[in-house]
Amino acid sequence: MADDRVFLFACIFGAFISICHGEIVSVTYNKNSQEYKIHRHEAPEWVALAEFKNDINNTGWAYLDIKTSTNYDDEQQAFAAGMAEASHSANLMHDHWMNTVDGYCTKPYSAYCTKLQTFLQTNLDWMNEQIKTNTSTYWHMVKLFLLQVDGLSQGYELSRRSPGWSSLRYSGPGSTNLDPFGFYLFQVGGDLEDLEEVLGKPEKSRVFGSGSCSALIKMFPGNKDLYVSHDTWSTYQSMLRILKRYEFAYTVKDGLGVYIPGYMMTFSSYPGTILSGDDYYLMSTGLATLETTIGNSNSDLWKYVRPENSVLEGIRVMAANRLATSGKTWSLMFSAYNSGTYNNQWMIVDSNKFKPGSYNMTDLLYVLEQIPNNIEYGDRSDVLMKQGYWPSYNIPFYTTIFNLSGGPAAVAQYGEWFSYDGSPRAKIFKRDFSKVTSMETMMKLMRYNDFQHDPVSKCACTPPYSGENGISARSDLNPANGTYPFGALGHRSHGGTDMKLTNMTMIKNLQFIAIGGPTHDQQPPFQWSKSDFGPKTPHRSHPDVFKFDPIMFDGSINIKKFGGFRG
């Protein structure tokens, strides 16, 4: 293929309009000189091949598709995949860093930052020791994760030093000895909020009561289909987004020739992040994994968070995603080396267990909840069958996890807002799930927020409601001069920042529908220039207005706009 080859054409597919436009890079490896080379075309005998399109201003998303070759060792594939990703998205990585991480820990380090650096470095050292002394597939996956981060870092540095490059070279093998304050921070962003508590950061990032994501798994009438949907809730400066497909030819162990079951996955993500973080994944095994954060309010549990004998959450997720073939095996793998950080309720949907029309399905839905020193999981297909839906909204389902994590104390102080059955989203899901009869109505529910008019959204606030109390939050619309009983209900740069949805047909091809940006169904679109966050909240490379329609993502950059719904 020619250098800088660009594909540009439009196609019509029934309800979808396909937009195809991508740029290719490939990475080659010379085994004699140990030199990696990045090309702006599909070079012969590539280790990694990546196609990319930045369409953030048009659809709210960039798109990245990376493949690696079976002709190279796993370690070479991982490093090359990181290099390929960074060479495409270096500018977005820079801007996302400036928007979300810059200034978090700068020299001279504060007492907290010194402790954080020590914690992360000690944990990295411990993992590297396990990699050296263990030959298990699990630690092989951990090694490949760290090598991919190193490739990402090296590819970024090369790309930023040589703007307009035609080729880039790097000599030497990749390394698992990472800088804890480099792009590794992108991979552990979810863990940082809990590490702030553990290490005594004076000003915490987490607002008390703050939600982080909504999810709904919904049986179609007659159990003819199953919908799996997720809304990310986050700060608005995080809205530089990339939808990704990784197709990596990893083996369970180098030299054995046995490939991992989860060799391909699609997921929602961010620049410089080699995991989802939202989280929302579809795998070649037929599994879908997604989560909402439950957190931990019991300070007595933080003593169990230690840098040794633990693997931070995102690394465990990716190892389980690649190796597990069922909800049970995913839960078992994820539960090893519990870090007690980024404490979530995980839902693992096994599409292989779905039987259209059946009312007696088992192992279809596993639900796992993690807090420090405790993980509980089990087959919750029975609840899904009985209710017709499984909702998730940042409150633990399992009584033991709810009690140990401080749930009863929060209910005693602030009321049913913190209870599993009494929270606003619990009530909205229970009231409205039966209205879902199509993909369009599922999207409407997942984007729902009519907080000024819905009685469920009322609170002991002035004015008497909060944009936090919807399925997709819009906390930016809460008046800055209002009064609120706790921080989560107030005015802040925070809300639902996307929507993802798949069903049992789409999941076979790792396809999902995605909408970028805050909901604008019952509310006005979010606009930086009209918000009071703009001057003080970095948002480099963001569109001014987030008003995007749904698209269909199948892992390629050939994006199809979904024609049946306007987001």
Automatic annotation (TrEMBL):
Protein name: Phospholipase B-like
GO MF, one annotated term: phospholipase activity
Function recorded in the entry: Putative phospholipase.
Pfam families in the record: Phospholip_B
Enzyme class: hydrolase
Lineage: Eukaryota, Metazoa, Spiralia, Lophotrochozoa, Mollusca
GO biological process: phospholipid catabolic process
InterPro entries reported in the protein's UniProt record: PLipase_B-like
EC number: 3.1.1.-
Protein keywords: Glycoprotein, Hydrolase, Lipid degradation, Lipid metabolism, Signal
Cellular component, GO annotation: extracellular region
Family recorded in the similarity comment: Belongs to the phospholipase B-like family.
Organism of provenance: Mytilus coruscus
Keyword Hydrolase found: yes
